[in-house]
Amino acid sequence: MIVQACINGARPSAFHPRLPLDIEAMVRDSLLAIAAGAAELHVHPRTDGRESLAAVDETMLALRRACPGTFIGVSTGAWIEGDEAETRRRISEWRDLPDYASVNLSEPDAPAVMALLRERGVGIEAGLASVADAERLLSLPDHDRVLRILIEIDEQNLSSAMAIADGIATTLADAGLRRPILLHGSDATVWPFVARARERRWSTRVGLEDGKHLPDGTVAEDNAALVSAAVAIFRAPPSAA
């Protein structure tokens, strides 16, 4: 059970005044998030504010220097480059490799991206947003060769979101796939899903990629404040969870 910090994602600059969009800001927020209790980092490298897989090397080098020993991952979302061949080309050119990369099973080229990441020695965080995504993962010949399962739900209706997450977990369990699970929601479901992850003894993540509000509904000062709140939930006695 860990708390991962997802510090920026695809959010626009107007989302939060302290959204880290350049390397200096990413390093600052990463250090603060780790100090607040984050065990890992998930970042979306950017060039001139725009998400870019070409920016992975420079970003990873800076984060490795600032946060030695910290597990660091990136996204491979198809929207970043907007072209399947370009996505694969950029990944093949990485020199300063992340420890892991998230791959969305809802994306058509996911199997090819996963195969390339394995060739490069990068761990795979298999992103599942639906039962169909889980079934697709299970259909792949190397479905058990993933670092972990990332159950990530965008649905904002809490009961529907919980049903989807439970359906994914049940589908994987019924198939006998036993990999670590990281569960997270977005915006309205962030904190209910942090609590659910704690109950199931799964990992979770928080940060400005997923939402900007604290459990009490106020806007967090920064990523570190969100991490602190999640760590407090994970460390609370069972009766206080």
From TrEMBL:
Pfam families to which the protein is assigned, alphabetical: BKACE
Coiled coil stretches, renumbered: none
InterPro entries documented for this protein: Aldolase_TIM, BKACE
Domain of life: Bacteria
PANTHER family assigned to the protein according to its UniProt record, in alphabetical order: 3-KETO-5-AMINOHEXANOATE CLEAVAGE ENZYME-RELATED, 3-KETO-5-AMINOHEXANOATE CLEAVAGE PROTEIN
Protein name: 3-keto-5-aminohexanoate cleavage protein
Source organism: Shinella lacus
Upper lineage: Bacteria, Pseudomonadati, Pseudomonadota, Alphaproteobacteria, Hyphomicrobiales
